[in-house]
Design a protein that fits this description.
Blueprint: H1 3-16, H2 19-32, H3 37-49, H4 53-66, H5 71-83, H6 87-99, H7 110-123, H8 127-140, H9 144-164
Helix pairs in contact: 1-2, 1-3, 2-3, 3-4, 3-5, 4-5, 5-6, 5-7, 6-7, 7-8, 7-9, 8-9
C-alpha cells in the first residue's frame, strides 16, 4: 500500500470512529514517511480529541518543522496552543499562518486561519480587534462558521461595553 492509500485508509478509520486502528495506521505511515503532512495533522487531531494535548503539540511541532511554509500545519499548532490556553503563542502562530496564505495551496485554509485568530483574540477579550479580523476574513473568503463567530464577537463586544458603563 502506498502512502496515499495508507492515508486514505486512516481517514476512513477516523470517519468510522475506529480511533485505535487509525492511530496504528497513522503510526505505520509516519514510520515509513515521518514528514507526511496529512498523517501528522490527522494524528494530532486524534490526540487532541483524546485530550492528549501535549502529545498533539509535539506532533504539530514535527509538522511545522517539516513543513515551515504550511499554513495548515502552523494553524493546527496555533489551535492546539489555544486549546492549551496559550493564546499569545497561538495568536503569533496564527498570524504567521495568515502571512503564508498567498503561497501555493495555503489560500484554501484562509477561513480556518482567520477563525483561529478570532478565537484567540476573543479569549483575550480583544473584541474590537477580533471583529476587525473576522470582517477581513469574510471579505477574503465567505465562511459560514467565521460569520457565526463574528456575530458572537459582536455580542461579546456589546456585553463588555454594557458592563463598562
Amino acid at each position: 500500500m502506498d502512502a496515499a492509500e495508507a492515508f486514505n485508509r486512516a481517514q476512513l478509520l477516523v470517519s468510522r470512529g475506529d480511533a485505535d486502528e487509525a492511530h496504528r495506521s497513522l503510526d505505520a505511515l509516519l514510520a515509513a514517511d515521518p514528514a507526511h503532512l496529512g498523517a501528522l495533522l490527522l494524528k494530532a487531531r486524534l490526540l487532541l480529541e483524546m485530550r492528549k494535548d501535549q502529545e498533539a503539540l509535539a506532533v504539530l511541532d514535527r509538522a511545522v518543522a517539516a513543513w515551515p511554509r504550511s499554513a495548515p500545519a502552523i494553524d493546527a499548532r496555533a489551535r492546539c496552543l489555544h486549546a492549551l490556553g496559550r493564546d499569545e503563542e497561538a495568536l503569533a502562530d496564527a498570524r504567521q499562518a495568515l502571512a503564508l496564505l498567498e503561497e501555493g495551496e495555503n489560500f484554501r485554509h484562509a477561513g480556518s486561519v482567520y477563525l483561529t485568530i478570532v478565537w484567540c483574540l476573543r479569549e483575550m477579550r480583544r473584541y474590537r480587534e477580533a471583529l476587525a479580523v473576522a470582517e477581513e476574513g469574510l471579505r477574503r473568503t465567505p465562511d459560514a462558521v467565521l460569520a457565526q463567530w463574528a456575530t458572537q464577537v459582536e455580542e461579546d463586544l456589546a456585553r463588555a461595553e454594557r458592563e463598562r458603563c
